[in-house]
Write a structure and sequence with these properties.
The protein is an alpha+beta fold and 342 residues long. Helix content is 39%, strand content 19%.
């Protein structure tokens, strides 16, 4: 039986429901999956899929349906495509896998809504796998899985430590309004928990948390290669009640939980070391679902953004950024500095 795009996405979704806990570290699994993926490609495909680790393309990320470099799943046969998805699974946890599969499948809905105009713009398997450097158990390398509304950027340092940023997910529509999937909200948890937190604040707290009554039209950091902390607006964790702080930490963990458990745990440990009391929560826009909303959570080491304002507040964008760990930038710089001294 041929693995059609619909069956392919269904199989991906099914896998996420029965994922088993792995004994290996993420870097080990990524190395093995990348080797298998590259080993299944012909020379021309390998050329398309690979870049040196220091190539500028590694930070050339975006989340709209623009022309991309790398190797598209659309260009692969069924076996090769399965190996590309197997690589993706080594980096994502159950939450990430479920959301990724659903986001890819939304391309079929957009294709119907837009009557396939222009032809081929929406395609649930037009997602690209790109390898940077040579996959290794000891050296540093990276890889990316990207297409419309998905961009996962992994960097493996010295074959062991894994960075997972920038990590972007978006949905259009944010809520499916008609058809068999009516009511589906792929990023509904992110929106609902944000609304629950802002609405749990009292009047005084809310006055601090809300920095403008109009939501921006896009996440503020867009697809910048590098980001610094945004303006220090919003309410600090120290100004919240214990119950409100629990809501804030739970919301942070939703974003971290898109990655595999080991990666999510390492990211949260870094955030915790930097000080949970230093987290800030900033809000813009309405206080009810169905209207334009934006929020961001910021700590000393990271930034999370959520925006649902486009298409009559039915088109959501979310991102996790690591100030030092985006593309493993600082860790790679330190690695190269040590290597140069040797």
């Amino acid at each position: 039986m041929r693995l059609t795009p619909r069956l392919f996405l269904a199989a991906l979704g099914l896998f996420t429901l029965c994922t088993l806990v792995r004994a290996h570290a993420p870097a080990t699994d990524m190395f093995g999956a990348a080797q298998k993926f590259l080993g299944a490609l012909n020379p021309e495909q390998t050329k398309q899929a690979t870049y040196v680790l220091t190539d500028e393309e590694r930070e050339n990320w975006f989340f709209t349906p623009v022309p991309r470099h790398g190797l598209s799943l659309k260009q692969l046969n069924d076996a090769q495509r399965a190996l590309g998805i197997a690589l993706l699974r080594t980096g994502l946890g159950q939450r990430g896998n479920v959301r990724a599969a659903a986001i890819m499948s939304l391309e079929s809905i957009l294709k119907e809504l837009e009557k396939d105009t222009p032809p081929g713009r929406r395609d649930p398997i037009n997602y690209f796998v790109t390898i940077f450097g040579t996959p290794s158990e000891k050296a540093s390398w990276g890889w990316r899985f990207e297409g419309h509304h998905l961009s996962f950027n992994f960097t493996v340092i010295d074959g062991s430590h894994v960075f997972f940023a920038p990590a972007f997910m978006g949905t259009n529509p944010a809520e499916v309004l008609a058809g068999p999937r009516k009511g589906e909200r792929v990023l509904g948890e992110e929106e609902d928990l944000g609304l629950a937190l802002i609405n749990s604040l009292d009047e005084t707290q809310r006055a601090v948390a809300i920095f403008t009554t109009e939501a921006p039209k896009e996440i503020i950091t867009s697809n910048k290669h590098r980001v610094d902390p945004l303006s220090p607006v919003g309410i600090s964790s120290a100004q919240l009640t214990p119950a409100q702080r629990e809501k804030l930490v739970a919301l942070v963990k939703v974003y971290l939980g898109r990655g595999r458990d080991e990666i999510a745990d390492a990211n949260f440990a870094a955030i915790n070391r930097a000080g949970l009391e230093k987290l800030t929560f900033a809000w813009a826009g309405a206080l009810t679902r169905g209207k334009a909303v934006y929020y961001r959570i910021q700590g000393p080491t990271f930034l999370i953004e959520f925006d649902n304002s486009q298409n009559n507040a039915n088109h959501a964008h979310t991102v996790f950024r690591d100030f030092k760990g985006d593309f493993g930038h600082d860790a790679l710089a330190e690695h190269y500095a040590k290597a140069h001294k040797k």
